[in-house]
Structures are given as structure tokens and as C-alpha cells.
Amino acid sequence: MNLSQIDLNLLFVLKHLLEEKHVSNTAMALNMSQSAVSRALQKMRLFFDDELLVRKKYGYELTPKAESVKHDINTVITSLEALAHKQSFEPETVSSTVKFYGLVPQINTLMPKVIAEIRRQAPNLIVSIDSTPKRHFDALVDGDVHFALSSHQPPSSEQSIYRMAIAKRSFRLLMSREHPLADKELTPEILVDYDFGQVSLQGEKRLSFEHKYQELGLATKKQCLSAPVQLNNFSSAASIAAETEIVFHLPTPFAESACQDPRLITREVPQALRLDFQEVYLYWHKRFHDDPMCEWVRALFKQLYVGEDTLA
Fold first, then answer.
1. What pLDDT does 82 receive?
2. What is the DSSP letter of 124?
3. DSSP H helical ranges for the chain
4. What residues pair up with 230 in beta bridges, in sequence order?
5. Contact indicator for 29, 19 with CB cutoff of 8 Å
């Protein structure tokens, strides 16, 4: 098969196949039949002269060639989308997908207003959101998303990422209304003797403010704070706090939302334990900097949030 014979739609199918490693999941994501996805895979195997996906006991595994093709396909599709948008971009008629990555607190706080505005101005623009806990900038660098919402900093070696500050970030302590500290003044010295819940979204081994305790001389690298509960997302924190004496250090919007449960309260984090990273940024890669659709989306964020005192 030569290049003139390839249907560009096959590249979109293959992109999803290489990400999902599963025919039926790809069919569901693309609203296609499984047989149509299987035919597309067969054509791509002929084109690349490679199996691409090899069947295993629980699905498929990428061949070495498929691993190398995966990144190149993202680049090709990104270039095609940018080329299409450069011809004309009219929000009311555009039919495309804008993709975001962000963790649940930022997504829940910042995206609803953006989506509402997109629905009003660009009703055919699809918003795709990935909130799976992982390293914040991988999908951005790989071209899998257009934007990332994060309070973290990209690797110093990554020079192709732009950003715009859109919100302030703050934290609260979430605890049971029956907790021994519920009505007491909180200090680092008092808190050090209590148990914390560790929410590790990216595999962190220590509590987010543990370095503050080390700076105060109240903890060492060998003598850590007590964290007998470790979670990889926020969803269970509220119910655990309500039934135990575990204290959780959570983003303010999430902690306050949890207090719809009357068994819970939030308390201010002592000044000495407050984290240094207080801004949430909208990040995008150089490849999308001049893309008209992405320029339009950035303008929405600027209109909705820049200059506003928004907590995320």
C-alpha cells in the first residue's frame, strides 16, 4: 500500500487502537462497530508491514514498531488539525475536539464555566477531559492533549511549554467534627502527633507538607509523619475522615465540598505549613501555540479567570 491509497480516517482509528490496546474499547470510543475497527487494523498492518498489535491473554500488546509509530501518529494528526484550523476557525461552525488533562480538583473547579461558554459559542466543539492521576505534562509533551491544568512546574529541560496563571490554589485540613482537634488551635507542634491521610496522585511517598515539618525541625527524612492511610485519589477521603481521626490535607474546593456531610469540618492550615506553589496554570505546548482553536480556548480562560480571585 502506498501513501496515496491511505484513508486518513485510518490514522485516527490506529491512534485510538495504540492507546487503548483493545478493539472493542476503541470501537466504543469512536462509535464504530468492532468489525470496522478490525478491518481498519488489518489495513494498517498491511500499510506498515507489521502486526502492530499482538493478541495476548488479556488484550493486545504493541510491537516495537507500533511503539515508535504511536508518537509519530500523534504528530501527524496534530499537524493535520492545525492545518485545518488555519484555513478558517469559526466557533459556531467548528467541528473538532479540544483535549484537557488535569486532576479532579482543578477540573471540577475550573472547567464547568469553560464548558458552558464553549457550549454557548461553539456547540459542535467536543471537550475531552482526562483526569487520571499521572505525571502532569507527559500527555502535553506527547501531543495527546491540547492543554493541562496544573499547579506543578514542568521539567526544567522542557523548553516548549507555555503557561498562563488562571487561579490561586489553597488547601484546608479536613477532619471529623468529633476529632480531638476539631475545636482547638492548630499548630505544627500539635498536629505532628496525629495521623494523616496521604493522597498520592503521582506516587508520592511523603505528605505534601512534610518538608515543612523538616524545615521546622519537627520531622526528619527517617522520622516521617504518621500516614496510616494512603489513597491514589480524593474520592474516599471524606468518608474515611468522617469515621476516623485521620486528617486530610486537601485542595480547598474539594475539602469544602466534602463538608456537605455534616460529620465533617475544615480547618485552616497553620501558616508555617502552607505550601509554596499557590498558582494553578493553564499549560500548552509550542505545537499548539499558533493554532486558532487553541488561541480561542486560551482567550476563553483569560476572559473567565485572569484577574479573578478564583480558588482551585
1. 62
2. T
3. 8-20, 23-30, 34-48, 64-87, 104-121, 138-142, 188-191, 210-215, 237-243, 252-258, 292-305
4. 198
5. no
Region for residue 21 given its phi and psi (left: phi exceeds 0; alpha: psi -120 to 50; beta: otherwise): left
171 pairs with which residues across the strands? 251
CA distance 165 to 302: 9
* CA–CA dist 273, 109 (Å, integer): 24
Amino acid at 140: L
CB 171 within 8 A of CB 269: yes
Cβ-contact 305, 110 below 8 angstroms: yes
**Axis crossing angle, helix 292-305 with helix 64-87, rounded to the nearest 10:** 80
- Alpha carbon of 232 to those of 9, 202, 204, 221, 229: distances in Å? 36, 8, 9, 22, 10
State the Cα–Cα distance between residues 77 and 39, nearest whole angstrom. 20
- Please give the C-alpha separations between residue 256 and each of 180, 209, 269, in angstroms, as whole numbers: 20, 19, 13
Band (308; pLDDT cuts 50, 70, 90): low
Distance of CA 41 to the CA centre of its chain: 29
69 phi and psi angles, rounded to 5 deg: -70, -35
* All residues at 6 or more sequence positions from 155 whose CB lies less than 8 Å from its CB, including other chains: 137
The residue to which cell 504511536 is assigned: 70
pLDDT in tens, 163-205: 999 998 889 999 999 999 999 999 999 999 999 999 876 666 6
Give residue 18's pLDDT.
Answer: 85
